Amino acid sequence: MSDKSNKLKARLPRGLVDRTPADIAATRAMLEKIRKVYEHYGFDPVETPAIEYTDALGKFLPDQDRPNEGVFSFQDDDEQWMSLRYDLTAPLARYVAENFDALPKPYRSYREGYVFRNEKPGPGRFRQFMQFDADTVGSASMAADAEICMMAADTMEALGIPRGSYIVKVNNRKVLDGVLESIGLGGAEHAGKRLTVLRAIDKLDRLGPDGVKLLLGEGRKDESGDFTKGAGLTHEAIDTVLAFTAAKGETSHATVANLANVVATSKQGLEGIDELRQIAALVATAGYDDRVIVDSSVVRGLEYYTGPVYEVELLIETRDEKNRPVRFGSVGGGGRYDGLVSRFRGEPVPATGFSIGVSRLAAALALVNKADTQPNFGPVVVTVFDSDRIADYQQMVAELRQAGIRAELYLGSGKFGPQMKYADKRNAPCVVIQGSDEKNDAAGEQVVVKDLILGAELSKLEKGRDEYLQKQADAQRKVRRDQMVKTVQEILARHGVKTMMA
User: Could you tell me if 87 and 131 are in contact, meaning their C-beta atoms sit under 8 angstroms apart?
Assistant: First the structure.
């Protein structure tokens, strides 16, 4: 009897997920659509590593009193702190600074990859998730920000989200800084409290005004009983901040006018108002003013934003697997971060960028049935009828692959029945069968090609009907050996299954 006392328990860490072939296929299709839009706008790819020196990432996450707060960190062999990246923007800033003289300015690039957050996981909040960014570094023009907002709108439509089902919302951190200055939170000594206020406002979409009010005051206890310490603002200061978030008007022009009234005495705030006016005018000229709007509720939670900030919000309401209402809210965002590259250069380097939360958007698209719903078919399976003829079957697989068809030889053990069950689990579109009868057929060597997709449809039809008989004839075809590849190609084409050469 085996000893199971030391058996290792298979367990997935909290806040992480395993991804299936269907998940990967849907994500791959999404990424390709996003990439085409980004390249259409003139952005080129670049890739940075998942690990950076912690000081290069900067202290931009909440409660980061020591290096491993908010990010996953460790020390390398020379005792320098290193961290897994928490976004794709900070590593880009390091890359641009390190290669500054060799890069064209403005430098336009995009990148995709996983980022990591050492935060408490929860519904829709993961410790590892994918982002897809595009950034323009080296331009102070508001046209760069307007362009990225318009590109965000085009990306949503490329992914199948119809106009009217999303909105790109724009605000300006200078305006909010002017508001905070008016309530006594200006200056470097109040940087920590300002960040707490920013993070509170950033939860407006999820918690509503009442929840944000608690976070601006003494604090808030969530459904699990966990308490989040608040910013400790006075009632008057809270009212001023909430008035800022409620300044949205019927149009972008009206919202800008309302915000101008809130920050009338702040020079910095009025600079932000002017930048918002420029962006609103640019998007209106390009015909995007129904998709890109000024909205005072947008602040973005990261500290490094210095000017315009923007978010893409899905307006679609749907239901989850338990029939509970779901509204996804923000699926992407970004803004201007003129100080991030400057940390390395010691000189002003303006920059602006946008990030799509791929994992979150994929979940949203799946629920609203906008994801790529093409079935994730597996390979064509060549079965093994005679175990002493493996070489013959391997030759069939090779011919299919040479024709650009995804194919595999059954490598397990067992009789024909288990092989068909295997092909079904692999979601194979068809199988190739050759026993001794087909090999030694009097009319010449034959193979049987069984259409499993059509076979699945047959199981839903009533036997005896003409349609059933016709499909039954099509579902299993005996053909000459030299017609095998052509027959498989016809089956794949019938069901829209792409080959490597399609």
Answer: yes
| Topology at the third CATH level for domain 380-494 | Rossmann fold (3.40.50)
CATH topology of domain 21-367: BirA Bifunctional Protein; domain 2 (3.30.930)
Q: What is the location of CATH 3.30.930.10 in the chain?
A: 21-367
Residue 350 CB coordination number (10 Å): 21
Mark the binding-site residues, compressed into ranges.
Answer: 87-89, 117, 131, 135, 300, 304-305
pLDDT digits (tens, 9 = 90+) for 89-137: 999 999 999 999 999 999 999 999 999 988 888 766 789 999 999 999 9
Q: Per DSSP, what are the bridge partners of residue 446?
A: 480
CA atoms within 13 A on the CB side of 392: 18
Q: What is the pLDDT of residues 194-226, one digit of tens each?
A: 778 877 887 877 788 888 889 888 888 877 778
Single pTM value for the model: 0.80
Binding residues for L-histidine: 87-89, 117, 131, 135, 300, 304-305
Q: Peptide bond preceding 429: is omega within 30 degrees of 0, i.e. cis? A: no
Nearest to 357 by CA among 318, 327, 312: 312
